[in-house]
Amino acid sequence: MKTPLTLLVALLFGTIIAPAQNGEIALKSGDRITITIAGVPDNEIVQISKVYTVADNGTINLPYIKEVRAQGVKPSTLQRTIEKTYVDEEIYTRPTVTVSIDAGDVATTRMVYVVGGIKGNGTVPYNNGMTILKAISAAGGFTPFAKEHKTKLIRGGKTYEINVKEITSDPTKDMKLQPEDQIVIPE
Predict the structure, then answer these.
(1) How far, in whole angstroms, is CA 146 from its chain's centroid?
(2) 87: Cα within 13 Å, side-chain hemisphere
(3) What is the SS3 assignment for 165?
(4) Which helix (H) or strand (E) holds 111?
(5) Cβ atoms of residues 177 and 130 within 8 Å
(6) Which of 63, 66, 136, 158 has its CA 20 to 30 A from that of 120?
(7) DSSP-assigned letters across all residues of 34-103
(8) Mean pLDDT in residue range 138-160
(9) What is the pLDDT of residues 72-99, one digit of tens each?
(10) Which pTM was predicted?
């Protein structure tokens, strides 16, 4: 039987973890994205289909429709916005747009930070499906003095205490991380 505290923690983590479940990451300024378009005249495909960088003001400039908001938007949403804008502006009737983050670009790489009682480098590149245990492992694992049961997850300015010993004994409790999460392991 679960204690009320355990249920509260599960409820909290269920709500803070849910946004990362679909695997898409919101874009930020400096991200390089590849946009391809189909369903338009061949000579215009080359003009539009290329790599764009999200500007400091959070937008990208596209032919015929100018600035489109990209910062804070997931690629699939940006894709639909671009298609809708081209149709609403009566530029194209049925464009098909694909937006993908340029994974090879350093500026686009998202990180998870693991600090404190770990053996190695605490900056770990984020990837979809990354969990607390995977991040700790990628950061070199625990030092002999790590207090695993007092691990903290910092996300969006909020701190959550996690007992990693419980996760290692029951991997179903391992939580998915989001980019920029911080894991602090006291010694």
Answers:
(1) 28
(2) 13
(3) helix
(4) strand 111-116
(5) yes
(6) 158
(7) EEEEESS-HHHHHHH-EEEE--TTSEEEETTTEEEE-TT--HHHHHHHHHHHHHHTTS-SS-EEEEEE-T
(8) 89
(9) 898 999 999 999 999 999 999 999 999 9
(10) 0.55
Residues linked to residue 68 through DSSP beta bridges, in sequence order = 60
CA pair distance 41, 54, nearest whole angstrom: 26
Which residues contact residue 171 at a Cβ distance below 8 angstroms, ignoring those fewer than 6 apart? 133
Coil, strand or helix at 29: coil
Return the DSSP state at 182: E
In the chain, DSSP finds a helix count (H) and a strand count (E) of: 5, 10
Tell me which amino acid residue 18 is.
A
Cα four-point dihedral sign 67, 68, 72, 74 = negative
70 vs 26: CA distance, rounded Å: 9
Between CA 70 and CA 179 the distance in angstroms is 17
CA 99 to chain centre: 15
CA distance 124 to 134: 10
